[in-house]
UniProtKB/TrEMBL annotation:
PANTHER family with a match to the protein in the record: GLYCYL-RADICAL ENZYME ACTIVATING ENZYME YJJW-RELATED, PYRUVATE FORMATE-LYASE-ACTIVATING ENZYME
Cofactor(s) needed: [4Fe-4S] cluster
EC number(s) from the headed UniProt entry: 1.97.1.4
Gene3D superfamilies linked: 3.10.20.740, Aldolase class I (3.20.20.70)
Keyword Ribonucleoprotein: no
One Pfam family matching this protein: Radical_SAM
The protein's enzyme class: oxidoreductase
Official protein name in the record: Pyruvate-formate lyase-activating enzyme
Lineage summary: Archaea, Methanobacteriati, Methanobacteriota, Stenosarchaea group, Methanomicrobia
UniProt GO MF annotations: 4 iron, 4 sulfur cluster binding; [formate-C-acetyltransferase]-activating enzyme activity; lyase activity; metal ion binding
Domain Radical SAM core: start-end pairs: 116-353
Keyword terms: 4Fe-4S, Iron, Iron-sulfur, Lyase, Metal-binding, Oxidoreductase, Pyruvate, S-adenosyl-L-methionine
Amino acid sequence: MLACSGEAIEMVEDKRQRNTIKFEFNNRVLEAPERITIKKALEYAGIRFSELPDGLYSPCNAGGCYCCAVSADGEVVPSCITEIKDGMKLSPASKPLRVVTGFVPHMVGGVGTPYYLKSYSSYIEVACFTHGCNFRCPQCQNNVMAFTGGMAISPETAAEVLTSVRSMYKVNRMAFSGGECTLNRQWLTGAIRHLKELNKDKKARIHVDTNASIFTKDYLEELVLAGMTDIGIDIKSLHLDTFEKITGTDGKTAKTYLENEWFSARYMIENHPEVFTGIGIPYNKALISKEEIYDMGLRIADISKDVQVCVLDYRRAFRREMAAPDIQEMKEVKEILNSTGLKTVIAQTMKGNIVP
Ligand code: SF4
Ligand code: FES
């Protein structure tokens, strides 16, 4: 239902009578109605799930990120989409897993790819796409990955496959994108550590493409320590109302996400010059004004005038109807950003990138 772009699927309430079932969580016997998810059963028994990383965490609710995973009768399953059964024995998940697809080569990479490496004739990067996202962007271009589950794999397997795809396409760059790849911290840091072990050559680059909404200082430090060499941070807006419109999130959670995006960009640029940091910002006049773009430029320039900023031309996708900005508009937006002092602005257009 979440991933259906035409909103053709709707949930229908199951009004049949529900018997009470018993299950165990951490050796405590609990009760809940039958025919609900494990997550709902735990909530019914008073166990709280959070939208932000804090104890039991369920940011995607689509079976993609496995942040909400538990061991159920010995098998690790996402609690948000798995049905509770009578007599089930639940405990915290014994290993990190994540639904991942893709492992495909790219010619242009992402927000964290230096613009001078982007090519339209040969591959420069291979990427794996993590399923599940904490945002609900109505113009999401990766809605299948963002809003579905599937078969989950370990961080080690993901790193092994990415390494073999790197060798197959003879590229140096390996990326994690999505969906939102940072949601399952243990999985992502494990995959990057393993990837670094398997790719000890100096040319290997490990790129994380992210909405940066759940980062903390220690999460960013853990990624750098694990081996991340490049990061692309999408900052969706300056103002909260714009952010809510673009991301489909709201309230206190949206405010925290937006603050974390700005914090992450500043933190990486000021503390990790050895990591290539790129910033992505959205543009479509239906979503964000040129004044807000200008003010975003000023705030980024206050962090660094040299950072690479990529303006992404948001267009009709998923559930949102809107005309794509034309090339002239994107040129204008690039000039607005340059006028704030930013030196390295790339504008994405229907006909390719306008580079510095
Ligand atoms: S943050 Fe990216 S992947 Fe997630 S919903 Fe928005 S556009 Fe889609
Ligand atoms: S919250 Fe359940 S898999 Fe993402």
